[in-house]
Design goal:
The structure holds 2 protein chains of 2 kinds. Chain A is α/β, with parallel strands linked by helices. Chain A has 7 helices and 11 strands. In chain A, the strands form 2 sheets. Chain A has a 6-stranded parallel beta sheet with strand order 3-2-1-4-5-6, with helices on both faces. Chain A has a 5-stranded antiparallel beta sheet with strand order 7-8-11-9-10. The radius of gyration of chain A is 22 Å and the shape is elongated. The termini of chain A are far apart. The chains are: A alpha/beta, B alpha/beta.
Chain lengths: 220, 137
């Protein structure tokens, strides 16, 4: 995969470290001389000193037709223009932008950036998840938050403990994909019973998320 | 903010301040915005509305009536900010008449063709060429 990493220092270093292998062709461009030195010394990789918002610099770096473009600048506006330049002028297939202001997540998506990430935004979502149900372990959003995978732990304080899946009444709004019981993973059917200490992985969508979680609330 | 503002100007540098004044002289209701309060107080001879704040924060723009304006001028010092604002104002608020300043005219390529771009560098270069041609006569 051809991946372009634009700007960022420690964040760029992390991504380079993770994806610098024979399967990927990494292109690194940075507008700070000091960061260029840091990144190239740490990773033994060429780093281009240039502006990721400038078509000519991106072209010279070899951005054209890249599979993925990752914008990591602290300036949201710079990331926005870099992504648009990559997409509109250099035929990059997919752009990911980080943003400092969490309000820009929805805005950038509306303007055509494929994926937008903000650590504060994610934190906000995590708090919402943690607050809505105590036994929720994890939640992952896919396809622009249309599909949600939820990991739940069943305890004896839950209403659903001991019930069969077919009696939960969620077959139209969610699908329980797997139940992890001790060392075993069980692919369940309607007659599978939920037991305390089970971990449940279920798939649902944004509209039905709250309704599904309601089923897993505590006993009164 | 009282409405019937029809033009919003973001960036109260010399260009922005003078555009705001010019529009006001033509009897338009202008709101001039800059994130730096000092810049706004330095604009003399202008009796339109002024507001200090971050224009890239949409809630700030909405509080100041962006939904009602028919014309927007983005002339901050940062090209990226001007491009972003023009995109969002066209897409989300449907503003038809948008002008932006671009210090780097090569960025025109990613700006929507309905947005009108002012490029000081190109203008100076053209002016120079014209002047030189005049000399040659």
């Amino acid at each position: 995969m051809k991946i372009v990493i634009a700007n960022g220092k420690h964040s760029a270093d992390y991504i380079i470290h993770k994806y610098h292998n024979r399967y990927n062709d990494l292109i690194v461009i940075n507008n700070l001389e000091e960061s260029c030195r840091y990144l190239s010394m740490n990773n033994d990789i060429p780093v281009m000193y240039g502006q990721a918002t400038r078509e000519s610099d991106l072209r010279e770096a070899g951005t054209e037709n890249a599979d993925l473009f990752i914008a990591l600048s602290k300036s949201d506006m710079e990331n926005y223009v870099a992504c648009q330049t990559a997409k509109k002028l250099l035929n990059v297939k997919r752009c990911i932008s980080t943003v400092t202001n969490p309000k820009n997540v929805d805005l950038f998506k509306e303007l055509g950036i494929d994926s937008v990430l903000s650590s504060t935004y994610i934190l906000g979502e995590q708090i919402r998840n943690a607050a809505s149900i105590e036994n929720l372990i994890n939640s992952l959003s896919l396809e622009d938050e249309k599909i949600i995978i939820i990991e739940l732990k069943i305890t004896d304080r839950l209403r659903v403990e001991g019930m069969c899946l077919k009696d939960l009444g969620i077959s139209d709004i969610a699908s329980i994909s797997v139940i992890i019981r001790g060392q075993k993973s069980i692919i369940p059917n309607g007659n599978t019973q939920l037991m305390a200490d089970d971990k449940v992985l279920l798939v649902t969508n944004e509209e039905n998320r709250e309704a599904v979680l309601k089923v897993f609330k505590r006993k009164k | 903010m009282s409405s019937n503002i029809n033009t919003i100007v973001v960036g109260a540098g010399r260009i922005g301040a003078n555009i705001a004044k010019k529009l006001q002289k033509e009897n338009m209701n202008v709101l001039l915005i800059d994130k730096n309060k000092d810049k706004l107080t330095k604009v003399d001879d202008f009796s339109g509305f002024v507001e200090a704040g971050d224009a890239t924060d949409l809630s700030f723009l909405e509080e100041n009536g962006i939904r009602e304006v028919s014309r927007a001028v983005f002339v901050t010092e940062d090209d990226n900010t001007n491009i972003f604002l023009s995109d969002i104002c066209r897409k989300r608020y449907g503003i038809k008449e948008i002008y932006i300043r671009l210090n780097d005219s090569r960025k025109i390529k990613i700006v929507d063709e309905e947005v009108r771009c002012i490029c000081p560098f190109d203008l100076s270069l053209n002016e120079f060429s014209d002047l030189m041609e005049g000399e040659g006569k």
